Amino acid sequence: MCAICYCSEMSFDFEKLFQAAPSPFVLLDRDLRMVWTNEAYQNVTGRTRESLIGRVMTEEFPSDPDSVHGRMLRASFKRVFASGATDHLPLIPYPIAGADGEIEERYWSATHTPIPGADGATEFVLQNTHDVTDLYRSQPEVGAPSAEHADLVRRAEVITRQNLELDTATDFFQSVFHQAPTFMAILTGPDHVFRIVNRAYLKVVGERDLIGRPVREALPDIEGQGFYELLDQAFTTGEAVTLRGAAITVQRDSGTPSQELFLDFVYQPLFDAEGETTGIFVQGHDVTAQRIAETHLREAEERFRTMAQTMPAHVWTTGPEGGFEWVSDQLYAYSGRSVGDFDGAGRGDVLHSEDRARVRSEWRRALEAGQAYEAEARLRRADGVYRWHLVRATPICDAAGKLVRWVGTNVDIDDQKTGAEALADLNATLEDRVERRNRELEDVHARLRQSQKMEAIGNLSGGIAHDFNNLLQAITGSLTLALRDLPEASPARGRIDAAMRSVDRGAALSSQLLAFSRQQPLQPRALDLRDMLAGMAGILQSALGDGVEIVVEAGEDAWPAFADAANIENALLNLAVNARDAMEGRGRLRIAVANRSMTRADLAGDDEMAPGDYVELCVADTGPGIPAEVAEKVFDPFFTTKPVGKGTGLGLATVYGFARQSGGRVTIDSAPGEGTVVSLLLPRSRQAVAPDAPAQPDPLPRGRESLLLVEDDAEVREASAALLADLGYIVRTAPDPHAALSVVEDMGAPELVITDVVMPGALSSREMADRLRRDRPHLPVLFVTGYSRDAMLHDGRLEDAVQVLLKPFTQERLAAKVRELLDAAPRPATVAPEVAADVQAGLRVLLCEDDALIAMSMTEALHESGAEVRQAKTVAQALAHLQAESFDVLVTDLGLPDGSGEDLAIQARTLHPTLSLIFATGREHVAAAERLENSIVLRKPFGDDALHAALANLRPAVPVRPEPGMFGAAGSA
After folding, report:
1. Domains of the chain, CATH where assigned
2. Which of 120, 192, 589, 849 could cross-link 215 (Cys pair, CB 3.0–4.6 Å)?
3. pLDDT for the residue numbered 504
């Protein structure tokens, strides 16, 4: 409110009253700006109205704010504006400039009266002041104030100064109160009305209007958290309440989420003179940051412990003086100690006695210097074994740089130490090892050259053997068939027999070529070499002659060998004949069987063999021996010391290739005048020896099954097919795997597939067999080969369950192998004739087949079992029968002249829901059979037994008997 407005609100008489008053009056706003004065004030100050109005009092009457009078005046104004109550200054020294400009020390008595504004708050202060300088000085002049007045003024000065000191102390207290780092508040009355709060308190609860309001009204967001109740408790009981880390949720700012704080505080009751509780002093600290830091510290410690417990190394911590605080589980497990065992002196027992003094001395130095510690020491394991560890410890300091903890680890370095010692030893023997390694490299290079030479010759000979075997097979087949057409007394029989013997010699030569090149298909099994030697005794003695004494040494504990029986026999016979020739028919031949466990050291320089158990077959003669330069070449193919025409040079090469292909080796030990020892190592079998299969009584077993022959060589294919047809089999042929798949798709799957291994085209014979077996998993397949070249081999041996017939083969071998596979294959279920008759008697069957011969054959088989049959050649004819009559079973082909057998079956099942279905087809899968219940797929070609079995497997097992005349007067078609 401006002075003019203010004056306009007062009546004219009221202002005249103040103007006429002898006491000085001045009106000041909140900035202490003078807005109105009366004449008495102007006179006493020696100023004019114009020089006062609008001026700040402290500027017009300057004073040092820190002076006594300056502080007294400002404190009085502050009390009036803050409290709205009148304030008195009985005596205040206040200098002012006189008319001449000289500053004169004057004494005043002032009363400050509040003038409220429209809102009730103090807006102006009316100062009434009196100049009491003369009274204060009390000069003894005429008319001067009395001594009593002077004493009164001086007492007023003392009171004023005491009030100033009190104001100063109050200001100091309030300044300290508001600037205190802890939050504080004073609550009065049982409702806990806020009287004083400092800035720290407002920082906790947010900037709110608290003064004069009860706590429940001022802080409604803390309701339900127990603080109201604690205040009531402290006020009622008069006992202080102290909490530490108390959680409180407050909403500091309107519209923002609530915050969780943690506080340490005390509710201290305040008492009056009579000891009654008048209020509560609240004081405390916001420890939220500390609480969060402690939480983070705990989480960090937990992460450290988790990490330490999962580390393979031992982890431990100690205090600053070196005493253990914590040890990871790995160290307890390693040492076998219990929790607490590392706290005392006993922890030193884990250290090796030779390491204790050194380790402890180094640890003391690290503790004294506060520097990282590192040492190597042997620590005892729970089983008593000492292992080398690298022990490290790092000092951990706080923010002030004070060492508070050590964190240490023990890392097992025993293997590294052992390796380092071994390395040192190796370095000491480096020269010897280099020389030995050079010799080993020379041996490796020699073996590599030998291997490359053998592989090159093997590739060449293998390719030759393949074509050679095909030629021999074609010749064998033709000669066999020609021999059957000749009378027993024909002279041509002798010439054909001679030709067959030549074929056998050619086959033996081809087998040798494949053997030394490690490309012959082997069929290893568990063999008892003692039984084999016993069985070969007669053959060996006959081959060696009476001049050679044979001594066999084989203990009862000899292990079984894992190898191909025929190749072992050939190898032994080959070695025996070579020994006989070396001894020139007279001498002693020792054959020994022994168990050998070969270590890596025993096999040094032999990269083709693995350490393990082997069976050794030794052949030792008493011949003249072999020079070293000859012994190096005896296993080379085509190397021989025999005269021209007396040997091919493939004998020992064949043995060498067979041994390597079997996973073993052959070695020779000989010197002039000391005889020769050839040792054949073969892998030990972990399986028991199975008894030999009984001999086939019929040299030419026959059959009527359907066979598929796949052979790319036309002459071999024609000859082999003729041999099979001669045995009574139904033979279909194909020149390659793709053509074979087409034959099966068109004519149905055979009961046996005979296929050459090496075939032209992108599809191999093995892949063809796998595709055929997708639909018929148990389909037997016979692989015929004269040169497999890894097509059917795994590590030089035939894969499991693979059946192989080697070219060239005779009709006898072919017949036996084919019959063996057919007899071993799962057969369709058959039904005994009496059961078939019982099941099918009176059965009403509708047969839909457009092939007249097949329809006639099936009808006869069904009639023989007592079934009644109607025939149809088309879908239309079959549907006509189904609409006119009732049937138990529909037997239908899939490919019919006017539609599909599957569509016929679906329509038939609609007409007769209980009708059983048989799909007679060359296909393995029929979609309708998979969807329709009580349906069976009967694969063509099939016999009567298969047809009867299919009918027996349908539901119902016993058909409903037809009524007389159900099929009409004509009976069955």
Report:
1. 3-176 (3.30.450.20), 180-286 (3.30.450.20), 292-421 (3.30.450.20), 529-683 (3.30.565.10), 833-952 (3.40.50.2300)
2. 192
3. 66
